[in-house]
Design goal:
Length: 460
């Protein structure tokens, strides 16, 4: 064990199998041990302070030590620490939250189904899509179309919907029947000289060709994030979702909206679908729903899905799906308090004000850099793509891991960012202010200059 490792590191290394972590690098370097939160900052075991410009995993929208959320959880634990939603049970907190979520999502006359993670939410949308079509006498409509580079979670169906090799490689996935169409990447997929409108037409045509090739009677649903997050922070081109939805409507295919990252203000509207003009049949919600202070998530479904569940079970059977800890009273209390804070503090207005400031500061930090090819994003969600040659967009060789190299240097300067290949993600807590933005920009500049130097000197 390296000499600088603490007791926590030693125990962690011996017993903790980590997600999305290289085992060899972990045993060389040990885990970063976070012990405390302070607004958008986190503090490690040695007392070093970092500004977390990724809000953890795009989730801690209210920062890392919000006292109101702590109090809401404590009060509910004293009242009712657990109950479930099977066999017609409920609790006042879950009932009230189900109504609130239908209201804030704008899913008129819809209903909320509770789960405990974004993966379960997406998995649930697939099951409901199958049930919906089967109930209408179309049981062959089973296949799901996602986009390449997409991320939808880690359970088996959710992983199958991911368009990322890293989610499939070790597990023999995707399952058959999970397809991936072109992703709307204006920097990499849009062709030279192609107008935005022509790009959208091509993306919609690609989707339609896939549907026709596979057979429209075999396709149940299309799933998409309004703005792709882990795929590299990719806002779609203007008119993308209306064009895609025209194709879906033509072939009787449901539209599933993964709002796990984009929901609850992240893009400058309550939900990403408003930002991009998507009109979904179901929406998956997680992360920001409780600012990740409790593992509660949900699917909000349109009335036709509710009717399908009712019709399928009209002879007295029960809807055969659910999770022990769904509709948890403490999770529901924390979610209700989170949403109340978003409303009271006008979090959407705040994102609209701080988003352009963050963008401007990132632009200032990256303009003229010999290794930055693109800055993109919306709301409080930005990506900086590092390239070998900004004039042509030629990427670095993947094995050089330039994005990870920059993220490591940022960490040394007290800035947490995420490298998605060579795109550096910025998705900070929604409570950040001008001072925090300056801190992010200043620390990014230092990390970028260090990385440029290492590239120049060919040491990475
Ligand atoms: C867009 C998107 N969907 C789904 C998920 C899965 O959520 P969870 O990790 O809560 O299962 C994630 C997680 O990052 C995500 O980014």
């Amino acid at each position: 064990m390296p000499s600088n490792m603490t007791d926590t590191n030693a125990t962690d290394l011996a017993y903790h199998l980590h997600s999305q972590t290289n085992p060899q690098a972990l045993s060389r370097e040990g885990a970063y041990v976070v012990v405390k939160g302070d607004g958008p900052h986190v503090i490690d075991e040695s007392g070093k302070r970092y500004i977390d410009a990724m809000a953890g995993l795009w989730c801690a929208s209210l920062g890392f030590n919000n006292a109101r959320l702590g109090r809401a959880a404590a009060a509910q634990y004293e009242q009712l620490g657990y109950y479930h939603s099977f066999y017609g049970r409920t609790n006042p907190q879950a009932a009230a939250l189900s109504k609130k979520l239908v209201e804030v999502t704008g899913m008129k006359d819809g209903k909320t189904f509770f789960v405990t993670s974004g993966s379960e939410a997406n998995e649930t949308m697939v099951k409901l899509a199958w049930l919906y079509h089967a109930g209408r006498g179309k049981p062959t409509k089973r296949k799901i179309i996602a986009r390449d580079r997409s991320f939808h979670g880690s359970t088996i169906v959710a992983s199958s919907m991911c368009g990322l090799e890293m989610m499939h490689r070790e597990f023999g996935l995707p399952l058959s029947g999970f397809l991936h169409t072109l992703h709307p990447n204006s920097y990499r997929v849009r062709q030279k000289g192609e107008s935005e409108a022509d790009f959208v037409t091509r993306l919609a045509a690609e989707l339609e060709n896939m549907i026709v090739r596979e057979g429209p009677d075999s396709i149940a649903a299309f799933i998409a994030e309004p703005v792709m997050a882990a795929g590299g922070i990719l806002p779609p081109p203007q008119g993308y979702f209306p064009a895609i939805q025209k194709v879906l409507a033509k072939y009787d295919i449901l539209c599933l909206d993964d709002e796990v990252v984009c929901g609850f203000g992240r893009t400058g509207n309550w939900f990403g679908r408003e930002t991009v003009g998507m009109v979904p049949d179901m929406m998956s919600l997680a992360k920001g729903i409780t600012s990740s202070y409790f593992p509660l998530a949900a699917v909000v479904v349109s009335p036709k899905i509710v009717e399908a569940v009712e019709r399928y079970n009209e002879a007295g059977t029960s809807f055969g799906h659910g999770f022990t800890n769904a509709a948890h009273p403490v999770g529901a209390a924390v979610a209700a308090e989170t949403v109340a804070i978003y409303e009271e503090e006008d979090i959407v207005g705040r994102v609209r004000k701080m988003g352009p400031l963050l963008r401007e500061r990132l632009k200032q930090a990256t303009d003229g850099s010999p290794i930055v090819g693109d800055l993109r994003g919306v709301g409080l969600m930005y990506g900086v793509e590092l390239v070998e040659d900004p004039s042509t967009g030629a990427p670095f060789a993947p094995a050089r891991l330039i994005g990870a190299q920059l993220a490591a240097r940022a960490y040394e300067h007290g800035l947490v960012v995420r490298a998605m290949r060579d795109t550096i993600g910025f998705c900070p807590p929604l409570i950040i202010d001008e001072k925090d933005i300056e801190e992010i920009g200043g620390k990014l500049e230092k990390a970028l200059r260090d990385t440029e130097k290492a590239v120049r000197e060919k040491s990475i």
